[in-house]
C-alpha cells in the first residue's frame, strides 16, 4: 500500500490540544490539514507587533474594527492559522460564538523576521484562496512591506513591495495613512 498523507481537521487539531498532545506554549498552526511549527517570536517581531497594535488601536477605539493579535482565523475545516494581526469587522459578541472567517477580515498582517518566504509563498496564497481581501507581510529582514490585494483561487492578483519611504492605507480605511517606516 502506498503511504497516504493524513490531513487533520480543525476539530481534530483542537482535540489534540485538549488532550495535551499540543501544549499551550507550542507555536503551531493548522494549514490545509497539516500542523506547522512556527518560529519563536524574537524581540524585533514582538516590537513590530506592539507598533502595529498601537497604530491601529484608534480605529478600534472609534468602533470601526476589532483588533485581534495572534488569534485564530477559521479559513476552512482544515485551516486555522494564527495571523499576527487582524483588523476585523466589528461585532457585538467579539466573535465569542466562533472564530472569525475570511469574510470578517478587513486587513490581515503577518510580521516576518525570518519567515518572509514562508509568509509570502505559503500563507499569502492560502489567504487568497479563501478570499481574504488584503494581506500585508511586514518583512523585517528585507526592510519592506509586501501588500497583497485582489484574491483569487490562484493567489493574489496584485502584489506591491513597499520600502520605508512609502505610505500605504488599508483598503478598508483609505483615510488612514501608514508610513512603512513606522512598521519596520
Q: What's the structural blueprint in terms of helices and strands?
A:
Elements: H1 10-18, E1 28-31, E2 34-37, H2 43-61, E3 66-69, E4 85-88, E5 105-112, H3 116-129, E6 134-139, E7 144-152, E8 155-162, E9 167-168, E10 178-179
Parallel strand pairs: 5-6
Antiparallel strand pairs: 1-2, 3-4, 4-5, 6-7, 7-8, 9-10
Question: Could you walk me through the main structural features you see in this protein, from its secondary elements to its overall organization?
Answer:
Residues 10-180 form the Putative restriction endonuclease domain. InterPro entries: Nuclease_put_TT1808, Restrct_endonuc-II-like, Uma2. Pfam families: Uma2. With 184 residues, this protein is an alpha+beta fold. The chain has three helices and ten strands, in the order αββαβββαβββββ. The strands form three sheets. It has a six-stranded mixed β-sheet with strand order 3-4-5-6-7-8. The chain has a two-stranded antiparallel ribbon with strand order 1-2. Strand 5, helix 3 (116-129) and strand 6 (134-139) form a beta-alpha-beta unit. The longest helix has 19 residues, at 43-61. It is globular, with a radius of gyration of 16 Å.
Number of E-state strands: 10
C-alpha Rg, in Å? Answer: 16 Å
Side-by-side strand order of the widest sheet: 3-4-5-6-7-8
Architecture, according to CATH? Answer: Alpha-Beta Complex
How many angstroms does the end-to-end distance come to?
A: 50 Å
Average pLDDT for all residues: 89
Q: Given the helix and strand composition, which structural class is it?
A: alpha+beta
CATH superfamily: tt1808, chain A
Could you estimate the helical fraction of the residues in percent?
10-25%
Helix/strand order, N-terminal first: HEEHEEEHEEEEE
The general outline is: globular
Low-confidence stretches: none
User: Which CATH class applies here?
Assistant: Alpha Beta
- Strand percentage, roughly? 25-35%
Tally of individual helices: 3
Biggest β-sheet: count, sense, barrel? 6 strands, mixed
Instruction: Write down the domain tally.
Output: 1
Q: Looking at CATH, which topology would you report?
A: tt1808, chain A
Amino acid at each position: 500500500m502506498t503511504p497516504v498523507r493524513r490531513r487533520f481537521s480543525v476539530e481534530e487539531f483542537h482535540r489534540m490540544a485538549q488532550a495535551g498532545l499540543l501544549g499551550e506554549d507550542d507555536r503551531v498552526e493548522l494549514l490545509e490539514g497539516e500542523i506547522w511549527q512556527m518560529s519563536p517570536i524574537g524581540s524585533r517581531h514582538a516590537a513590530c507587533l506592539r507598533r502595529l497594535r498601537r497604530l491601529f488601536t484608534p480605529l478600534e477605539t472609534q468602533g470601526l474594527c476589532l483588533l485581534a493579535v495572534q488569534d485564530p482565523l477559521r479559513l476552512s475545516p482544515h485551516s486555522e492559522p494564527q495571523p499576527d494581526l487582524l483588523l476585523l469587522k466589528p461585532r457585538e459578541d467579539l466573535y465569542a460564538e466562533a472564530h472569525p472567517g475570511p469574510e470578517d477580515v478587513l486587513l490581515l498582517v503577518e510580521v516576518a523576521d525570518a519567515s518572509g518566504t514562508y509568509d509570502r509563498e505559503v500563507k499569502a496564497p492560502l489567504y487568497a484562496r479563501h478570499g481574504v481581501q488584503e494581506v500585508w507581510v511586514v518583512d523585517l529582514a528585507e526592510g519592506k512591506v509586501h501588500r497583497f490585494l485582489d484574491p483569487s483561487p490562484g493567489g493574489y492578483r496584485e502584489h506591491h513591495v513597499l520600502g520605508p519611504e512609502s505610505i500605504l492605507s488599508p483598503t478598508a480605511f483609505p483615510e488612514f495613512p501608514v508610513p512603512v517606516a513606522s512598521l519596520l
